[in-house]
């Protein structure tokens, strides 16, 4: 039964092992190739040299000019001339005291023969044997040289291994060092991320130098932390504002009910019930708007659809009260992609706010402008002071005029409207107007068809 190998969990160790394994395979292949090539080249050169010397003295034998002691002028120092009976007719100084170098006798039809002879003590000689003539009593010429020590006893393989081993160790150490240096910023990022808690999101991970993937990861992590910090701050502020806004009507409701219970003779029951219902209506409106804000942050189950913003504005205007009147001026072909229910809610909030403050009427203008769909809702009321134009989009903020005109409002309508606009990739702000307030909604436009506004249409 084989035991499972332990799994290496460290990326640094895994990459080092892979690099070492690949380097080992590569060096093994290269070493084997060098061994084969070196041996082949050495043997080829040796046999070419022995053949040249043997051929030279074979010609001398035929000419009858062979001395008793054959001189040598190359590394081929083993030369013997042997007759058909095995007697040595001539030899070089190095081979004169040696027995015949080989007992191989090339046949008449194959006069040249290369071979390797090894003695009992392990010493080998590379030989070229030449039969001088095809005659039966032809002498034989042998020329040879001892095999270099590098090619015997696996010295060549040992030398190649001795050269490859430091390379393998160097590659392994370099891989370990480089991967460690590459992953060091990741470890720093991990350590910093472990310090970040839900109570303190102000910390950021350090950005490594360069523009590689780890730097992009750190930058994305910081951007995510910034968004998370902003969302948490917004939620905390929202929870604080919501609790503060809900506490007042709940306290008022409780006080009214306690008075009705403690002083039944001084409190008219029907009046107490009507006041409690009015407070309940306000609480219900606040809770409903809070749920709308919560749903805006969640994914919409329905995919966005292509909508005609002018037709949608006319539809919403038609559903509003007839006083004060709403007039729609819409260019054709102003198309946007979005969620129908949300955009209807946005336009309803803007129209409700405009009708609440209008003196004689409200005007909606829809057109394509600068590659965007623009819907402007204008009234002829008192308008919004420049210093309050951003503050009115804050949750639960209600100006004195709004509190006077609608005491039971939640203060979330305009905040919801801006949230919807931003969810659709657009914007909602208050812009300058000759008279009254002018709320301008801008949304990304599905390739709009520029057109002139159609004639005014009565929203009634």
TrEMBL record:
Its main location: membrane. InterPro entries: HAMP_dom, HATPase_C_sf, HATPase_dom, His_kinase_dom, HisK_dim/P_dom, HisK_dim/P_sf, Sig_transdc_His_kin-like_C, TCS_sensor_his_kinase. CDD domains: HAMP, HisKA. Residues 180-233 form the HAMP domain. One of its GO terms (molecular function) is kinase activity. SUPFAM superfamilies: ATPase domain of HSP90 chaperone/DNA topoisomerase II/histidine kinase, HAMP domain-like, Homodimeric domain of signal transducing histidine kinase. Keywords: Kinase, Membrane, Phosphoprotein, Transferase, Transmembrane, Transmembrane helix, Two-component regulatory system. The keyword Kinase applies. Residues 241-447 form the Histidine kinase domain. Its EC number is 2.7.13.3. The chain crosses the membrane at residues 12-34, 158-179. It catalyses: ATP + protein L-histidine = ADP + protein N-phospho-L-histidine. The keyword 4Fe-4S does not apply. It is an enzyme of class 2 (transferase). Coiled coil: none annotated. It is found in: Cell membrane. PANTHER family: SENSOR HISTIDINE KINASE TRCS, SENSOR HISTIDINE KINASE YKOH. This is histidine kinase. It comes from Microbispora corallina.
């Amino acid at each position: 039964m084989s035991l499972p190998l332990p799994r290496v969990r460290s990326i640094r160790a895994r990459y080092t092992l892979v690099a070492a394994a690949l380097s080992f395979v590569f060096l093994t292949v290269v070493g084997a190739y060098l061994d084969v090539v070196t041996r082949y080249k050495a043997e080829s050169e040796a046999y070419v040299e022995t053949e040249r010397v043997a051929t030279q003295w074979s010609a001398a034998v035929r000419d009858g000019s062979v001395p008793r002691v054959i001189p040598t002028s190359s590394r081929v120092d083993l030369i013997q001339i042997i007759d058909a009976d095995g007697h040595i007719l001539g030899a070089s100084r190095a081979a004169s005291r040696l027995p015949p170098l080989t007992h191989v006798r090339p046949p008449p039809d194959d006069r040249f023969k290369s071979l390797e002879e090894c003695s009992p003590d392990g010493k080998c000689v590379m030989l070229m044997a030449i039969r001088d003539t095809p005659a039966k009593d032809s002498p034989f010429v042998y020329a040879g040289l001892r095999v270099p020590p590098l090619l015997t006893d696996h010295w060549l393989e040992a030398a190649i291994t001795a050269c490859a081993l430091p390379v393998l160790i160097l590659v392994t150490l370099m891989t370990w060092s480089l991967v460690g240096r590459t992953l060091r910023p990741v470890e720093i990022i991990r350590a910093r991320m472990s310090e970040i808690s839900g109570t303190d999101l102000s910390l950021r991970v350090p950005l490594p130098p360069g523009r590689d993937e780890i730097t992009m990861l750190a930058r994305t992590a910081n951007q995510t932390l910034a968004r998370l910090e902003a969302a948490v701050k917004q939620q905390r502020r929202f929870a604080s504002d919501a609790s503060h806004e809900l506490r007042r009507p709940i306290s008022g409701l409780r006080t009214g009910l306690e008075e009705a219970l403690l002083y039944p003779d001084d409190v008219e029951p029907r009046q107490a019930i009507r006041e409690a219902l009015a407070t309940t209506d306000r609480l219900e409106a606040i809770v409903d708007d809070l749920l709308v804000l919560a749903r805006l942050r969640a994914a919409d189950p329905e995919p966005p659809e292509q909508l005609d913003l002018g037709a949608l504005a006319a539809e919403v205007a038609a559903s509003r009260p007839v006083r004060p009147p709403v007039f729609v001026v819409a260019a054709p072909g102003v198309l946007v992609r979005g969620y129908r229910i949300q955009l209807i809610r946005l336009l309803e909030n803007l129209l409700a706010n405009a009708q609440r403050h209008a003196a004689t009427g409200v005007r909606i203008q829809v057109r394509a402008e600068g590659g965007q769909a623009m819907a402007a809702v204008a009234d002829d009321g008192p308008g919004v002071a420049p210093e309050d134009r951003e503050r009115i989009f804050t949750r639960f903020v209600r100006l004195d005029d709004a509190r006077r005109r609608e005491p039971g409002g939640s203060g979330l309508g305009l905040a919801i409207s801006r949230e919807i606009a931003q969810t659709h990739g657009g914007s909602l702000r208050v812009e300058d107007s000759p008279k009254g307030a002018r709320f301008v909604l801008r949304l990304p436009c599905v390739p709009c068809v520029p057109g002139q506004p159609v004639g005014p249409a009565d929203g009634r």
